[in-house]
Amino acid sequence: MINNILIISSNYTGHGHKSITESLIEKFSLYPDVNVHVIDGFSLAGKFGLRIGKLYGSVTRNAKDLWKLMWELSFRKPNLIIEFTENAIRDNFLKILKTFKPDLILSVHPNFNAPVLNIMEEYNINIPFLTFIADLVSITPLWADPRADYIICPTKESKYKCLEFGVSESKLKVIGFPVRQKFLQHTDRTNKRESYNGNRPLECLIMSGGEGSGNMSRIAKILLKNFDCHVKIVAGRNRMLKRRLERSLYEHFGNRVEIYGFTENIQELMLSSDIAFTRGSPNVMMEAVACNIPLIVTGNLPGQEEGNPGYLQKHNLGVVCKEPSQLKKIIEELLSNNAEKLNKIKEAQKNFLNPNIAKEIVDFILSMEKRGDINIPDNLPKFWDFGKRSVVGRKIIINRHNKTLR
Hints:
Helix content: 40-55%
Strand content: 5-15%
CATH superfamily of the largest domain: Glycogen Phosphorylase B
Order of helices and strands: EHEHHHEHEEHEEHEHEHEHEHEHHEE
Distance between the termini: 35 Å
Strand order of the largest sheet: 2-1-3-4-5-6
Low-confidence stretches: 383-406
Radius of gyration: 22 Å
């Protein structure tokens, strides 16, 4: 039986990887003989690696063109990312293996898949390696290393991309996107929030992922000036944005608006709302669906979030409004005829939701067979030896044209 599981995640590149990890740990905890060790993949590269991980917030808020460039680099020159990461994490990764002795490794961040597989291949370490794709539709080829034992896909769309990247269908498992239990607890409540019919102020929630970005102030002003509503805004870790919103909104709208920083009880804000306005973050979108709150997606990061608005509309989980000038009209349509369209979205979300996804993923992982003890060499390489090591002939990753890079 699989007893020791190493999860390679990320604490600072948004909140999605961490949330996925937490949702799985909740279900692993149901098995008393299973030990889970979580490591921030960027920390394996020391302080320098953590600084890179922590750049995510400022880059996605202030330099979206740079983020798009990094995304494109993962398609055009994935070997640059892979070799750099492999060299940076080798020592600490091998030490983690030697200390924790995992029976299985699960990666929920694309940057560490090929580097970890390369290192294990180099040292003949035979540990089952699984990947969970933390994106819904638009995925980088860094997710799709064909040497992984399995790649767990949250959607059929992500599976099809892996097939395009050359992964065997036998290694792809579509299960779904897991969310933490606190977003699902309401499904057992008898006093569920009623459908909205216009007989009270509309409860609106504006959020933009853990880092806080987007046209929050403009969206709030459109809502407050044109509708009988109460607006809650979550600015995330973006303290400057929070202060700016407080200055611009409190004076004019008073107690019709509430502004929060990063909050751990976001589910309570969702459950008390009739509609949410958010960026196309997969984690935020799926948590909102779990809370049965209709979504208006107001934008998305270039790259891995580009396909998410279309996915939302395909399943009628919400609507897309990337132009604030169209927002008033879209909300009026949702609220017309006793909020008929708004309530149809709520019904579609109920039909879409599978509250057991996290447990299904965990059960699949625990169904894997243990491969016995691993042997980590005592004399580990020094950092300055990295450049001397040849990578010629080693499989690194497939590219968008289904060719293996060597």
